[in-house]
Amino acid sequence: MYMNKDVISITPEDDITDVIAQIKASEKKIVAIIPPQPAGILRSVVNIKLIAKVSEEAEKVPVLVTSDPAVLKLAHEIRIPVAEDLNSRPHVPTLEGLKKHASSEDEKAEIAEDFVAPIKKDKDEEEDDEEKEEKKKKSDKKSKKDKKKKVSKLAQKFPWIAGKEKIILAVAILIVLLVGFLVWALVIAPFVDIYIKVSVNNENNFSQSVTFTEDENAEDVSAGKFYLQTATKDFKQRMNFTATGKKDLGDTASGEVSVALFFDDDYEEDGATVKIPSGTQFSLGELKYVSTKEVIFGYDEETECENLEGLSGNTAKRALKDEGCQVTKTIPISASEPGEKYNIDETKDTWSVALNKETIVGYAIFNAGKITGGTSKIVTIVLQSDVDKVKGDLSNITETDGKNELFESISDSNIILDTTFKAEEPTFEVAPAVGEEVKEGTTPVVVATRQFSVNTIDVARIEEFIKDNIKLPEDQKIYSYGEKYIEYFSKTDDGYSGKLKTTYKTGPNISEDIIFDKIAGRKVGDAQSIIRSIQGIDSYDVKIDTSILLNTVPTEKERVKITIDFKE
């Protein structure tokens, strides 16, 4: 009846944002809002408040065209006018009930115009509101019933869902659990654990003549020629000792002596010479000196004989008596060892020297001057006798001990040729060396070293040779070897020779990879039959454990565990 209005018809697919947009876009002051059946979004107090707020900001009067009790109740609380239809007069619902009032179009328009301003509550209505609030606080049960009347957004869009939300949720959870279980059972859990027991008790003997070489480059495994290695072990023992030797490390005295040789006149025509070489020893009682220069005495008819006067002692007298001719020369000398006792200040005439007397009748030696420079410095030195005393105590490394320790030091990757074991005699090192000074704070020590050795062969080379010389069927392989050893080892013109002996055990040629390739993707029952058909596998020793729902061996190797137990 009133023309100054716009009509908004809400469909089930509309949400509150669509309604608010249409209110804002309206050019009329009064906006009649017709909800769907059921009321849907207008049953939410939040949505009603948004409609009221947006309408007030846009200076519009919203009128809810509905007779839905839930919507009328919210309209009463929010103070939004309602109408039964587009021709009914808008009014704000009261607690006494919703009364329809017929009026003229003018009256409806007039009342509608008044709704532009906020509608005030009368006294009765305020009292009703207070009574309602009081009842709402005291009655939790009534509050729960009011909440049950609220409909979810999903129910607003799909009305058939209303009231069935819990059932739908339970069904959805069951579906998720079922899917998860199927994924676990068919994708994650599938796993096969296979146990296979193989008996390996077929023992065989191996014996073959082989040769050995000490030249690594000459090794030829295919021809049975092996490189002969040498393993050594040195054993060292140390022992301190006390040096007992003494030595004078002072300076030696030096000087010159005059030597007079008396030649026989019979040699005057033919001539004669006497050589006194360097190192000739001159003695003065217990004191020993050596010449440091070679001196040659010559006598012939041109030699002028010296006057024998001035000579003293028996030598000079003997020379005068024999009427020989004197030739005198000076010879440098040095004491044979350090010491102050070799210093001579006064003249001495008791010198002696060993000379060839075939051409002379005598000699005389006397000082040409002082012999000086001798000093003493007595130090301790190592004597050979000191070392010999401790050698016996250091030679107690027995061959048995050395052999045991040497063999233990050799790894299992080598074969030991026991007959080639050698034990060297011990060697000794002395510090300080024999004859050297033992300085203050130094303790002399003797270190004894004894070396033991034995020849070895690489096991890997031996096994390579054995495999090449054993002809096995394709379905068989070698599983283990017994002790490998060399008999009749001996030296030959070309090197060494011997006989290689051992034992070996064979069984079915299977492995984890071979088994997997045979059964991947097969039914579990078929896989068991395939494995049991392999020669050498006992059917009672094959066990396949599978996860739930699995009836086929996975093709992913990481999901198949294969354990092969070899029993000898």
List its salient traits.
single chain, 568 residues, alpha+beta, 6-stranded antiparallel β-sheet, elongated
Poorly predicted ranges: 101-122, 144-149, 308-322
Q: In DSSP terms, counting alpha (H) and pi (I) runs of 4 or more, how many helices? A: 14
Strand content: 25-35%
Spatial sequence of strands, sheet with the most strands: 16-12-13-15-10-17
- The counted number of beta strands is 26
The end-to-end distance, rounded to whole angstroms, is: 109 Å
Derived from helix and strand composition plus strand pairing, the structural class reads alpha+beta
The outline comes out as elongated
Question: Approximately how much helix is present in the residues?
Answer: 25-40%
Question: Largest sheet, described in full?
Answer: 6 strands, antiparallel
> What Rg, in angstroms, do the CA atoms define?
65 Å
Mean pLDDT equals 77
